[in-house]
Each structure stands twice: as structure tokens, then as C-alpha cells.
Amino acid sequence: MSTFIAAFLFLLVFFLLMSIGYLIKRKAVQGSCGGLGVLGIEKACDCDEPCDRRKAKDAKEKARQERLAQHRII
């Protein structure tokens, strides 16, 4: 039982430190492997011409990023 409590406390402290780091830097946690970029794939949908649904989703995300950039405090 003490091993379970020690592991739980360790994870709790770990997540607390990650949360503090996020609040200070305002930067999301990123992986180090590079993801699809390592395989030479630019995006999740590797089509030459994306479908209308994908175009709408990309436009919505771009507008969201622009709004965030305009209202950024730091």
C-alpha cells in the first residue's frame, strides 16, 4: 500500500509542476519525436487537395489562431 501512495504522490507532484510550468510559459507540452514530420508528412491528411470539410476546419483554426494572436497579453 505504501508503494501505491508513494507513486500517487510522485505523479501528483509531477502534474503539479507541469501545471505551474504551463501557467508560467503558456506553452503546451510537446513531444520530442517530431511526429508525422519525421515521416515526411506535412499534415495528418496528406491529400493534394483537401475536402471541403477539411478546408472549413483549417479556416476555422486559422481564424482562431489570429484571434488569439490579437488578444495575446504577453
Provide the descriptors you would attach to this structure in a database record:
single chain; 74 residues; mainly alpha; 2 helices
Instruction: Tell me the overall shape.
Output: extended
Compute the average pLDDT: 82
Radius of gyration: 19 Å
Largest sheet: none
Low-confidence stretches: none
Order of helices and strands: HH
User: Kindly, what is the distance between the CA atoms of the first and last residues, rounded to a whole number of angstroms?
Assistant: 45 Å
Number of helices: 2
The secondary structure category is mainly alpha
Strand fraction equals under 5%
Helix content: 55-70%
Total beta-strand segments: 0
Description of the structure:
By secondary structure, the chain is mostly helical. It is built from 2 helices and no strands. The N and C termini lie far apart (45 Å). InterPro entries: NqrM (IPR007495). This is (Na+)-NQR maturation NqrM. It holds the Pfam family NqrM.
